[in-house]
Amino acid sequence: MKEKENIIFGIRSAIEAIESGNTIDKIFVQKNLQGTLYKELENLLKKHRIAPTLVPIDKLNKLTRKNHQGIVAYTSPVPFHDLETLILKNREEQKTPFIILLDQITDVRNFGALLRSAECIGATAVVIPQTGSVSASLDAVKTSCGAIYHIPICKVPHLKDAIYVLQSLEIQTIAATEKTENSIYNLNLKKETAIVMGSEEKGVSSGILKLVDHKAKLPMLGKISSLNVSVAGGIFMYEALRQRIL
Question: Which neighbouring-strand residues pair with 174?
C-alpha cells in the first residue's frame, strides 16, 4: 500500500497538524477510542468544527500500515472558507452571489469537472458536506486542472446547514432534479442563487429537496433519461452566466 502525501496518522500528529493550521479534509477515528490524549483531540475537533468519521479498526488498517493509534486523517491542499463571509464579501463588492452545492458527489473526476466549470463562470463558492462526499484532495487538484486553487471551497457539517444559511440571507436555492416538471430555463438566475447538484446514483437527497425554494431540470428529448452530473452542472452554471451577461 503506497502512503499518500497528505495522510496523517496518530493522535499526537493529528493534534499538532490542527494546532499548526493545517486544513483537515477528513479524519477517521476508531470506534470507542478512549484516553486522555484522545480527549484532547476530541475537544480540538469540536473547537474547529471538524466532524470525525467513526470506523472499525480494520478500516484504519487498510488506510495505513503505520501505527495509527486509532486516528487517520487527510489534509487538504486548499483552505476551507466560511460561506456567509464569502456571500457578504460578494455583496460588498457589488457582485451577485452564485453558489454550487454538491450533495453526495463521490467521484473525484466529476468533482474536478464541476470545480472547473464553477471557476470558469466565476462562482462564489462550491460547498461540500464533511461526510459522504468526495475530498478536496490532491486528486481533485489534478482532475480540476488546478481550478480548486481558484474557487473557494466551503465544507459544512451537512448541506442542510448551508441551505439554512443561504435562506437566512434570502438567496434562492434550486435543486437540480428530474423529479419536477419545471425547466431551469423558466427560472430567474440573475438573482442571488445557489444550485444543488446530486449524485448520479441517488440525485439530490430527499431531505434537501424538501428544503429548497425551487426544483428544476434540463429538457431531455433523447432515449437516455439523464446526463452525467458534471455535464448537467455545467449546463446549469452556463445558463446562469448567460442570463447574467445578457
Answer: 195, 214
Cα distances from 152 to residues 14, 49, 104, 142, in angstroms, run 24, 18, 19, 16
- 59, part of any domain: yes
> How many domains is the chain built from?
2
Instruction: At 135, list the grid cell.
Output: 475530498
**Using CA of residue 108, residue 109, residue 114, residue 117, what is the dihedral sign?**
positive
Task: Tell me whether strands 71-75 and 193-198 are parallel, antiparallel or unpaired.
Answer: unpaired
How confident is the model over 38-97, as pLDDT tens digits? 999 999 999 988 888 899 999 999 988 888 999 999 988 889 999 999 999 999 999 999
Alpha-helix runs per DSSP H in the chain? 11-19, 36-47, 57-63, 83-92, 108-120, 138-143, 159-168, 206-211, 229-245
CA distance 128 to 107: 13
pTM of the model: 0.85
Q: Is residue 21 one of the residues assigned to a domain? A: yes
Does one domain contain both 17 and 128?
no
CA–CA–CA angle 219, 158, 21 (5° rounding)? 120
Q: Which domain holds residue 29?
A: 7-75
